[in-house]
From TrEMBL:
Domain EF-hand: 42-77
UniProt keyword list: Signal
Top-rank taxon: Bacteria
Pfam families to which the protein is assigned, alphabetical: EF-hand_5
Protein name as it appears in the record: Ca2+-binding EF-hand superfamily protein
Species the sequence originates in: Rhodopseudomonas rhenobacensis
Signal peptide start and end residues: 1-23
UniProt GO molecular function: calcium ion binding
InterPro entries: EF-hand-dom_pair, EF_Hand_1_Ca_BS, EF_hand_dom
SUPFAM superfamilies noted in UniProt: EF-hand (SSF47473)
Amino acid sequence: MTTRRTVLLSLALGMMASSPAFSASALKVLDPDKDGTVDLAEAKAAASKLFDKLDGDHDGTLDARELRGRLGKADFSAANPDNDRTIDKTEYLALVEKRFAAANPDNDGTLDAKELASPAGKALLKLLL
């Protein structure tokens, strides 16, 4: 039952994130200074809050179950260099930084709605919302 729930959540997140309207509404949530963009500090703040929310057992780490399908096996392995089968907040935020850079092809340090709607932006949003 847990696997089915994880698959359904992954599909729902994927479908929602594929919508341009979702990217625009995500921008509103992630942009506290209302400048129309998300910078790395704003992304990391949102990611930190989500990490804390997902950490149901409050042990300071997330396992695959707690991540609820937000990362595939390869992404999980890449984000877990110590191979302890969990991701701590430092590892999680490092992955957020990597995905932010991938979603920021113009290297201006900010993401707009169009960049958030890109495949790289959608991958980032899974770690922020």
